[in-house]
Amino acid sequence: MKITELLTDNRxxxxxxxxxxxxxxxxxxxxxxxEEIAKLCPSFMSVTYGxxxxxxxxxxxxxxxxxxxxxxxxxxHLTCVSSTKExxxxxxxxxKAAGITNVxxxxxxxxxxxxxADRSKWDYKxxxxxxxxxxxxxSDFCIGGACYPEIHPESENQKDDIRxxxxxxxxxxxxxTTQMFFDNNLLYNFLYKIREAGITVPIVxxxxxxxxxxxVERAIKLSGSFMPQRFKSLVDKFGSNPAAMKQAGIAYxxxxxxxxxxxxxxxxxxYSMNKPDVAEKIQSNLSDxxxx
Length: 292
Ligand code: FAD
What we know:
By secondary structure, the protein is of the alpha/beta class.
């Protein structure tokens, strides 16, 4: 099933993300976590793709399992930065052969050793190049793209960021998933601006439940997200008590999701970090809202 078909539904929906293991020895535990999360019957599940190729070879296996073993619609991520045309085309044909129609088209983070490389020679410089590649292979792919309510860390200003986002959507992006954010007002403000800029595709907000204090620093470094005082107070108060921090982080994420539903968002994507217990708790907190 195409993700865009799910997004026309007016019921509140919840989807989850998993990431592949770094090594073969980690495959079984990721498989088990994926199965546990799939048992919650989310609207769809996404599987990330290692930018430097580190974990990329397992993305497709996990995505295939989600679809065929557990019957949950799946979204396979694919990145293109510093990859050759040959590699990317090969990956796309594998995705197609696996019968996966939903693809998240990403540039990926530029590996540190290539930050000063001459990018003019790269086959793919931005996600838009991958979108063209996907569309030219099969116009039936349902393509997702990433967007950044607090602007992409490399962008100089939001105006340019939104201008490039519009180009990406016009190139064939069917929906957009957001970077994590901890203040819903930032999302509402962003939505207003992108709608004004003529971007009309469905937006899937991404919510990251912070369940331990160590995650906070990493999340900010990764996303550059603003931490509201309400969230900082919670980490200050409960950060040194793992069980309390987990409970408070899940409650905070639940609260964000309820507010998003109340403000017209239909599908919220949870960065569940291969933690079935966290995914399950959030879903059970929303059981009546989701009708589950
Ligand atoms: P782009 O859309 O190419 O944008 C990157 C930057 O370039 C932005 O500043 C943009 O404004 C600018 N830009 C875009 N087009 C142009 C243009 N034509 N000319 C000049 N500038 C331009 N990373 C992974 O490695 N694996 C994953 O699975 C993964 N999943 C993700 C899922 C989501 C929902 C999000 C939000 C991010 C994910 N990432 C993942 C991280 C992502 O790869 C990085 O944030 C990366 O730095 C940018 O990717 P992008 O697809 O947004 O790039």
